[in-house]
Amino acid sequence: MSGARSGSRVRDREGVERVPEGVVTIHDVAREAGVSIATVSRALAGSATVAPATAGRVRRAAAALGYEPNRAARQLVTGRGQSVGLVIPDLENPFYSSVAKGMQNRVRAAGLTAIIADTDEDVAREREVLAQLATDVDRLILASPRAADTDLLALAARSRVVLINRSLAGVPAVTGDNADGIRQALGHLLALGHTRIGYAGGPVTSWSDAERRAGLTAAVDAAHDQGRGVTIVDLGAFRPGPAGGLAAADLAISERVSAVLAFNDQLALGLLGRLAERGVAVPEAMSVVGFDDVPVARLLAPALTTVVVPAQRMGAAAVDLLLAGTPAARPEDGPGALLRVLPVELQVRRSTAQAAGRRER
Amino acid sequence: MSGARSGSRVRDREGVERVPEGVVTIHDVAREAGVSIATVSRALAGSATVAPATAGRVRRAAAALGYEPNRAARQLVTGRGQSVGLVIPDLENPFYSSVAKGMQNRVRAAGLTAIIADTDEDVAREREVLAQLATDVDRLILASPRAADTDLLALAARSRVVLINRSLAGVPAVTGDNADGIRQALGHLLALGHTRIGYAGGPVTSWSDAERRAGLTAAVDAAHDQGRGVTIVDLGAFRPGPAGGLAAADLAISERVSAVLAFNDQLALGLLGRLAERGVAVPEAMSVVGFDDVPVARLLAPALTTVVVPAQRMGAAAVDLLLAGTPAARPEDGPGALLRVLPVELQVRRSTAQAAGRRER
DNA sequence: CTGAAAGCGCTAACAA
DNA sequence: TTGTTAGCGCTTTCAG
């Protein structure tokens, strides 16, 4: 094994010395600093067993040469990759864009790289993506995964996994406080005098939707206990894009509800658009509440009343959980042991008003 | 060098044979198929110099064992990575979300992985990101880069680079037809009788904005040649987010223009919001035209008239250009040689109407 | 505290 | 057509 192979290539065909471009290896640094490559490796890794003077010399040499360690080589020997994967249902959904942004920022701050994959809200696609990603990434963040519990568990057994908007025994996860969010939203509508309220749900496979529905049921029960009557009309399950909101709007009108709680802002956006098209004034004739608070929500006319979910923070939190010494999955712990629930808050804007019947107050 | 080291680990401490999980190497496949690792490598790479029978055996063995080649190892030896990087200014800008989505889809279809990095519309951040990315990716797609020509050229000399929304001598690029788009938009406004039109520009560092301004000037000159008078009021340069649109709206009002051409939809969104806030009816009192056609544009009330730029297709096209045998950068060719200009089309919706003075027609 | 040396899993000459 | 072998650049024992 010849120890001095690199460096020769810093001379081009004319034999002129040039700055080695991009191909500076650990050997070059070693030669420059007058030490062995092992020492360079240790010094740059911040090992305590390197004399301060030596370490300084190495660091200076590395900087002077513009040395950047080769990630492939490092990964090959350590077996641990330098990247984390993020799987999200739809990059064009602003909520996930924000999650991705927060995640990507934090990942890069940690000196790692973020690999992002989009599954188009499709289970089969998700499976493909996961299989492909699993081969070159051993740390994964899954946002709103549609996969079955067993598949997720199998994945978590091989790789470090953090879930966003889903909880599973023993797998660390980050979610928003769905039940509380829907409770706040319902409370707001009740305070405005609405008694017949539609719920435009998300996909049946959505864990978040299940949580929000459960929270809604609980909140309705609580209201009844306090002697307040409310009727929730289940408008159905919709694809969580604006298109789904169109259908939901028509249903809301024919069901004669005075307010609609939408599974997410995308749905609410579609609702607003269709309602305007059909000449139903918002909020005068119909109140609409969203969920997520995507950036455009406040720019709409009327601005959307919605539950603020800290999307970027969720992405960042997931990274933190992933990078922290997450204990191995232990199903005995049950869900919740590693669950980070972020608080959410209702943001009242222009899309909600008093129920029509109560207008005279 | 011991040729048979792996495989021993398929027995765990109790000595029970198990399916080797995730650590199947080329050696395991070679043993299973009864050939050498070199043959496995060739067979799986689809080399023609392998006997069909052997190739079949290898492929079967690989499948049976669930073999997935180690990317780090491959990259280390070939020097060529399996991933392509995408650098975009802002993931939360829906236009770039779409670009990212199109890019990511195509990249994954090609069996590669997409690394996405966000620069927050910041030159310094972009530099950082580029430096970090350059170390582990040798194929890069840069969307609307803010970096100086020289830096970009230097980068292109080391890595395969494709630009989106920027053109540079010898570097392949994909853009929308900015001049034509603005021409269509202006023509629409002229047809509606507007004669005093505001232009809400993007950042001064934006190549797209420069193109659109140039296109606007040319279109105005053409109009004058046809005896149609138009005055374009430069409202200024704004950060391309909705916040920028707020300021632009106030300026548009005080400048008494009857229509505004916005650099992009984000700006238009902010404009619409602020205009509504100030009680200026759109389109009755003020027409607004955007650029990009982000998904929400059609959902606004009023729906936004805008220039449709095929964002996803741009992302995909950039990948195609990147993966095709792109010729090395040859500045002699000048810009244009490797430039793929995608057609754009004005989509007329509700945010534009006849100029107030002409209402009586 | 430092250096020598052994590979990580794979591809690509070079032989056979 | 196939096998042998030399590394890719790096981390990490194991000796000094």
Distance between the termini of chain A: 89 Å
Mean pLDDT over the residues of chain A: 87
What is the number of helical segments of chain A per DSSP (H or I, 4+ residues)? 12
Largest interface: A-B, 50 and 50 residues
Instruction: Please summarize the sheet with the most strands of chain A.
Output: 6 strands, parallel
Structural class of chain A: alpha/beta
Helix content of chain A: 40-55%
Which outline of chain A best applies? elongated
Per CATH, the superfamily of the domain at 178-309 and 344-358 in chain A is Response regulator
Biggest sheet: strand arrangement of chain A: 2-1-3-4-5-11
Estimate what percentage of residues of chain A fall within beta strands: 15-25%
Low-confidence stretches of chain A: 1-21, 326-336
Q: CATH top level of the domain at 178-309 and 344-358 in chain A?
A: Alpha Beta
The Cα radius of gyration of chain A reads: 27 Å
**In sequence order, what are the helices and strands of chain A, one letter per element?**
HHHHEHEHEHEEHEHEHEHEEHEE
Briefly characterize the structure.
Two copies of one chain form a homodimer. With 361 residues, the first copy, chain A, is an alpha/beta fold. The first copy, chain A, is 42% helix and 17% strand.
From the structure above, extract its key features.
homodimer, 361 residues, alpha/beta, 434 Repressor (Amino-terminal Domain), Rossmann fold, six-stranded parallel beta sheet, six-stranded mixed beta sheet, 12 helices, 12 strands, disordered N terminus, DNA-binding, DNA-binding (chains A, B), Peripla_BP_I (chains A, B), HTH_LacI (chains A, B), transcription regulation (chains A, B), LacI family transcriptional regulator (chains A, B)
